[in-house]
Amino acid sequence: MLDGFSAETLARVQFAFTVSFHIIFPAFSIGLASYLAVLNGLWLRTRDETYLTLFNYWKKIFAVAFGMGVVSGIVMSYQFGTNWAVFSDKAGPVVGPLMAYEVLSAFFLEAGFLGIMLFGRERVGERLHMFATAMVAFGTLMSATWILSVNSWMQTPAGYSINDVGQFVPEDWWQIVFNPSFPYRLVHMVLAAFLTTALVVGAVGAVHLLRDKTDKEARRMFSMAMWMAAIVTPIQIFAGDAHGLNTLEHQPVKVMAMEGHYDSHPDGAPLILFGIPNAEEKRIDYAVEIPKLSSLILKHHLDAPLDGLDTVPDDQEPPVAIVFFSFRIMIGLGFAMLGLGLWSLWARWKGQLYTSAWLHRAAIVMGPTGFVAVLAGWITTEVGRQPYTVYGLLRTSDSLAPVDAPAVAASLIAFIIVYFFIFGAGTFYILRMMNKRPSTPKIGLAEGPIRTAGLTPAPQIDDSFIPRT
Prior knowledge:
The protein is mainly alpha-helical. It has helices at residues 7-46, 49-82, 85-119, 121-124, 126-155, 173-177, 182-211, 216-250, 252-259, 293-299, 320-349, 357-366, 369-385, 405-435; strands at 160-162, 168-170, 271-278, 283-290, 388-390, 394-395. It is built from 14 helices and six strands.
């Protein structure tokens, strides 16, 4: 123990800290890679220089965010060996190959084509450059697919057996990869990444529109972002509801914590909008609730019974307060995004999309909320799984490596100092790039409407010495 903190608690805090920093960068780069592919495709199709300007503007931001995501991800993998060696030993036969597939199929794809996307337009031609841009976008989606497959298996394990030494051994890789919660979590996360990127792009466009409402690049990026917010947010709400129903089926205790249901409700459970969980008294203090609405949402019937945490042993309950509040933060921000999308549709219909200063200010305020919602969603998912690393099968307390609390505390302090310095500087640099107005590129041989496929520009010859007649 170190000042009341056990090695397990410190190891959990350390992993939570590093994964919180890491997840914001892939959440941004997944959506931004797809946005770059769309911008490049629209440039090739329309030859509208605005799209090319925006592509060159956002690709620099993508490069920095991608690099920080890679660096922050490497640190997490080491913790499986240093802090969670028992988990790695027991779950390694399943988790290890899936992580390797992510590196071999997805990360190599991203890294292999990234240089061509960033620097290769004039060197490889437009078609291959477009292909490389699409492969980077596809690679980010593949990376998310494998990582979510790993995490989803830990949430809803399937396709395994347990050998004589307590290891999870693969029996059916199809069931392992496509485990019961995987499709719902993949859709939910990818849509969250798209919304996160759209809100950032919209905020940047709004900043420049407040400075100059005639800025055509700002108009274009703001319009595209608001279309994404208006269209994708309702889809995300529907996908989140489907994910919640899947969670109720496979992880009912997590839903009990999310809803704040300490007690069972045999004739219809209320929807608790807000309150303060009281762990000692097993109740929600100052609850603001709507009678029977939770049963209607989760079971599609007002009088449907719902079990509460009173049916679960205390040592199998997750930390209710954390799950309860993080879930409400995610839901609240989701409906705020929906409000912004609807507001943008109204302004577009009224012809005020580029002139409404209050809409632009709201878009700026909403800019970072995608990251907050993603973090809140992951906290809900991961803390709600406790006290297990592999749900219902391997407890977190049994997954820890034989490490001492002072050693974990020292590395945690080092991570905090280094992370805030490095990623703070990187984030500051990204914000500085976003603060600059997109500049129209000089149109040359490789960027203008006329192309010379596969040829290099002819050298310029100084003919001033040639006599004129």
